Amino acid sequence: MNILIVGLGGVTRAFRHWPERVLALALVRRGHAVRAIGPRDPTRPALANRTK
């Protein structure tokens, strides 16, 4: 199944316990294709970089 997660906090490596990230990892482990979209904010280091 293809799943899109849209979050207000983003999905980052810096904040490993954000609900969006935890949910995305659990879905990937179950075999789903997951994409996550969140805000990019250059003033906040954890949200400054764009990743693919």
Map the helices and strands:
Layout: E1 2-6, H1 19-29, E2 33-37
Parallel strand pairs: 1-2
Characterise this structure.
The chain has 52 residues and is α+β, with helices and mostly antiparallel strands. It has 1 helix and 2 strands. The chain is 21% helix and 19% strand. The protein has a two-stranded parallel sheet with strand order 1-2. Helix 1 (19-29) links the parallel strand 1 and strand 2 (33-37). The two termini are 19 Å apart. 8% of the residues are buried. The model has no long low-confidence stretch (mean pLDDT 76).
What is the share of helical residues? 10-25%
Helix/strand order:
EHE
Across the major sheet, the strand order is 1-2
> Strand tally, please?
2
**Biggest pleated sheet:** 2 strands, parallel
Number of domains: 1
Mean pLDDT: 76
Indicate the structural class.
Answer: alpha+beta
Rounded to the nearest angstrom, the distance between the terminal CA atoms is 19 Å
The number of helical runs is: 1
Estimate the global geometry from the Cα principal axes: elongated
Strand content: 15-25%
**For the CA atoms, what is the radius of gyration?**
11 Å
- Uncertain spans, ≥5 residues at pLDDT below 50? none
